[in-house]
Each structure stands twice: as C-alpha cells, then as structure tokens.
Design goal:
Strand order of the largest sheet: 1-2-3
Low-confidence stretches: none
Order of helices and strands: EEEEHEH
Helix content: 10-25%
Strand content: 25-35%
Number of helices: 2
Mean pLDDT: 88
Shape: globular
Distance between the termini: 18 Å
Largest sheet: 3 strands, antiparallel
Oligomer: single chain
Number of strands: 5
Length: about 80
C-alpha cells in the first residue's frame, strides 16, 4: 500500500498534527486528527453506533482546502 500525502495542518509545527492522505489503490481518503472528547462522541452516537473498527476524529476548518484536494485526488480518472 502506498499513501499519497496531501497536507498537514498548516497551523501546527509539522509534528503530531492533523494530516490527510489518499490511498489511490483503495480509492479512500485517510485522515489523522484529534481524538474527540466524550461529549462529542455522545453527540455522534445520537445518529447511530460507532463500530469498534471505526472512530471519530476532529480536523480544523483550516484543513478544508487539503480535504478538497484529497477528495479531488480520490475521485480522479481512476474511480470505478
């Protein structure tokens, strides 16, 4: 597997920060973000369960451009 790096949070020191990648082989977006607190998790659970194989993370709004770039890369000409 090879992940295509898109961007790190531009307002951090470049270490231990929200990051976005694209897995072009699996056509998936991979995100690293801050773990949500229990209040946020409880609010998310109102719409349904969060399976053990999934999680909820927070990404700052300043990463919208990076997320858009990742979306564009993920739905490029190879989408099936």
């Amino acid at each position: 597997m090879s992940l295509r790096f898109i961007a790190k949070d531009p307002n951090t020191d470049g270490a231990n920060c929200p990051t976005v990648w694209v897995d072009e082989e699996k056509q998936e977006i991979v995100m690293q973000g801050w773990t949500v607190d229990e209040a946020t998790r409880a609010e998310c659970l109102k719409t349904g369960p969060i399976p053990d194989s999934e999680t909820v993370v927070r990404l700052p709004m300043r990463m919208v451009a990076a997320i858009r770039e990742a979306c564009d890369a993920a739905v490029g000409p190879t989408v099936q």
